[in-house]
User: Fold this.
Amino acid sequence: MALNTSRLDTAVEAFQKICGHDRHSNLDGHWQLYQYGQFYVTNRTVDDLVAQIQTELKANVRFQLDPPQLTNAMNFFNAKLRVSIKTANLPVILAMLDSMENNGDMAAIKLMFAPTQSDRANAQSDFNTLWSSQDLPANPWWTGSASLQKAQAAFEIEKDRCWQVLRSFARMLLKKRAIKSLPAAAQISAALLGGASIKNITPKRQEIVYASQPELTAAVARMKEAIDNGGYVHCGVLSGALHEHSKFGSPEHHILVFAYDVRDGQDAFAFWDPDAFVSNIASTVTPTNASGWGRGFGILFSRPGRLCTGVDDADLAAIDTDSTSPTFGDHTSEPKRHCYQVYTLQSLPLRAAVKLHTKVMSPPSGASVDDMLDKAIWLYAAHDVEIHEASRETIDPGTDLDRYQTLFIGDGDSGASDEVTALQAALRDRREEFGVEPSAGEAVVAFVDDLVPAARGSAVSPPGQPSIVLSASAAGDWTLAHEIGRLTGLKTAAEPGQLMSASTAGLDDPVLTDEEAQIVLDSPLAEA
Assistant:
């Protein structure tokens, strides 16, 4: 059964053309952006690794004289490397290189499989360089470093970055299309859609239940309005196959809706999936497009009580719940059609963005970095402010930055302390090993062990270096959101329950007033 429509087909082609890929004109452009998605660095590292292996083998006289041997060797490397990179079998690869070697002529290739101390740093640098950019790269780029270990390090970095990649890619696409804002009628800022909650259907399967059908119906209408005005809709989703995932309220995954049509009487929405490998609908093949939509694209269906990838209730129920299966979480009716159920919505673009660069010197012991960021994002998004994490760096112990783990912040009356000033200067001057240098209008958020005097956080910054420091031992759910407010000019609020209360301890769904939101929007740090 074909799931697509001609209107959705056209919309997918238009999306691909933004990246320079046009199958009608045989233009490749930068198709890797949407087909590799959040695993871009992983896959580009493998691409480059395979290309370097091929270059080495083609330069080898033995393989020049025996083309079938070259073909067999490349078939082997493609089969072993173009798999789930975390399970790539290094001993088998090295054994094959040993069997191929003659007088040490495989030495250069063997070096590509030898771990180095810079593998993770190179992967992190590539990731940050790409996704902190404001502009859509016209073609695939590369830094020149490729190894199996770098690809594996990239996978570990990228596997939890669907939110950051989706938002960064959306910003690139919107800038390329010159879409800067949406009218009020097209804006969506609902944190939880239609009173959504989880219902356990079986020990291995969950469904989203919406308490308010009118809210769900209105949200779908707003989605169309946002798309009609050139915007996108960022959807937070649950897969439905029960496994370890983030606490409900913080989406398990994220997808980007960009087009809609009616199919068999149901509203159907085309989306781009940052985890592009799990979305590749075979039935989108048409007589004029033998490859269909390809990797990275899927369809949501809206019907009473549902906004999900299931065509009907039977389709929604029939998913692979075997966590050991390569199709875990997929609909069983068709491969590469992952099950998604929507429960948060946000229209894009927002009016302004505050950009953050997160430096985790000490992991927080209370709320996680992602939980703090998620709460800040949704609170400010309701007031048309995007909190955009442009980069994140985990700084391992054993560097000269350890001396700042107990950070003296002073009383704030005389500005940033010497220790805060020195730390921020050090964190901003790490481009060579990290790939991103924050600008003067972008904030650096640092998590350290403790602050002295004791505090959850502080936004007192050195001149020209907007910064937040947070105590890993004391920061809570709303500390980051509170300090972002401080950084953008908000004062202490007198009323309890407000974000800018004197203390964030015990806050639950705090209030950010319209007047406070306008101060944030007017801040020099809120980039239009």
Q: What stands out?
A: Residues 413 and 460 are 9 Å apart (CA to CA). The radius of gyration is 25 Å. The chain has three domains: 6-25+179-347, 32-158, 351-527.
